[in-house]
Amino acid sequence: GMYGLKRQQRDTAVMGIVGNPVSHSRSPAIHNAALQQLGLNAVYVPLLVDDMARFLATFTDADWIGFSVTIPHKQAALEGAQEVDPVAAQIGAVNTLVREEDGRLKGYNTDWSAAIAAIERGLDPATPSSTDASSSPLAGKTVVVVGAGGAGRALAFGAAVKGAKVVIANRSVQKAADLAAQLDPPASACSLEDLASGAVRGDVLANTTSVGMHPQEDETPVPAAALPGFQLVFDAVYTPLHTRLLKEAATAGCAVVTGETMFVGQAADQFKLFTGKDAPVDLMRTVVLDSLA
Ligand code: ATR
């Protein structure tokens, strides 16, 4: 990342988001606002890409600083990177590709670190920006991850890295069990019904499914009766910001963390990887919240 900005003092440095679809992404707005705020000679563009392998081959020799990667290319980005951060490799998904000094692409996953940091701050606002398993407020806590897709994998591996006990609750219990078995130490798996009945309890509940994204359907992945006793509930859904799950969690006396924290955090961590500079997080949050209003 630093390479591009140092080397291209006079030329505009370029980065972008690779996805399909990509036109509705809020990433260009928040990254460009941040670049402008810091006075950096760089732009961030949306890139509609069908074939990730072919795209990466095309851009091998170009002076791009790096790419954000979104659906459906996070796995292909992992395969296309010449070096991969160990946690991203475990998760099996790369959402950030950064060109190293020698031109090689290194893959990272800032989804897990952003979600975990948001939850850590929700538990303890004084949590420093990076923690290990001994200093994290998640250490020793039981984290129930609802969902076993890409976001669920990121949350589950992240919580395990921080020393939490992980339970995966998923509609398909087989998929939950498969993910649970990949964690070290292995997590437990349960059905959404087990969670709904109160048979499964914990300290932190994190929804990573899309249930709740369509407010007219008034859906929640976990019924209100199962929420009391959780210290904190996080929802990765941020359209709307206050999902039925989070409203019912607040009523049940749980602390709540809204999903835009994860979106802003993953972008801020990418910005740091791309530019080497701390992101203007408050500005990025304002841009996202304005776009939701
Ligand atoms: P993402 O990358 O956003 O996590 P994904 O990989 O498609 O998306 O995973 C979607 C997750 O949401 C899965 O855990 C899925 O449950 P299944 O594995 O049983 O399919 C869950 N999910 C999606 N729609 C759901 C619904 N209506 N009710 C319950 N779970 C749902």
TrEMBL record:
GO terms for molecular function: 3-dehydroquinate dehydratase activity; NADP binding; shikimate 3-dehydrogenase (NADP+) activity. Transmembrane segments: none annotated. Residues 259-289 form the SDH C-terminal domain. It comes from the Eukaryota. Residues 17-97 form the Shikimate dehydrogenase substrate binding N-terminal domain. The keyword NADP applies. Keywords: Amino-acid biosynthesis, Aromatic amino acid biosynthesis, NADP, Oxidoreductase. Its EC number is 1.1.1.25. Residues 137-210 form the Quinate/shikimate 5-dehydrogenase/glutamyl-tRNA reductase domain. One of its GO terms (biological process) is shikimate metabolic process. The keyword Amino-acid biosynthesis applies. This is shikimate dehydrogenase (NADP(+)). The chain holds residues 243 to 535 of 536 of the full protein.
